[in-house]
Write a structure and sequence with these properties.
Elements: H1 2-23, H2 27-45, H3 50-76, H4 84-87, H5 103-125, H6 127-156
Helix pairs in contact: 2-6, 3-5, 5-6
Signal peptide: 1-23
Biased composition (Polar residues): 81-94
Keywords: Signal
Length: 158
């Protein structure tokens, strides 16, 4: 009889934990939801027509893929080729090519990528909205950060 009670208790605990797991949004689902919010935000803020959006977002997706790859390289240890200054043993050069990242080189690559895509965006939505895109992207990032802060604050006060 005691064994049966323990089995029932274990079964209930497993059922409860499975329910909790199903109730939580997976990381992939959360990413997809945020991406959908971002697309809606960009569409609204840039005042894109359906025809413009249809042309804009494939270019945006390519931009996002390239900028994400660059940011991943930045976090993961840097560029393939180190700057000449880092590889030289000059007096006062405290950069360690094995561990330091060439932040300026990444910033330069990011800027160049943004210039390329601003032109591509301009072909779809015009110069003004193409330039405004980068502001809108920053506004969305700030919106997400504020939402995260609010949620954390709410959880602390529960």
């Amino acid at each position: 009889m005691a064994v049966l009670k323990q089995l029932n208790l274990i079964a209930m605990m497993l059922l409860l934990s499975a329910t909790c797991l199903l109730a939580q949004e997976s990381r992939a689902q959360r990413f997809e939801r945020i991406e959908a919010e971002k697309i809606a935000f960009i569409t609204k803020e840039l005042n894109l027509t359906p025809q413009e959006a249809q042309k804009f977002f494939p270019v945006y997706n390519q931009y996002y893929k390239e900028i994400s790859k660059l940011k991943h390289e930045r976090r993961g240890g840097g560029l393939q080729g180190r700057s000449n200054l880092q590889s030289q043993k000059l007096p006062g050069n405290t950069l360690n090519p094995a561990t330091d990242r060439d932040v300026l080189a990444f910033d330069a690559k990011e800027l160049e990528l943004k210039k390329i895509y601003r032109k591509r965006f301009a072909n779809v939505v015009g110069e003004a909205r193409a330039s405004r895109f980068f502001e809108v992207e920053e506004e969305f990032r700030n919106y997400l950060l504020r939402e995260l802060q609010y949620r954390r604050r709410d959880k602390e006060h529960e």
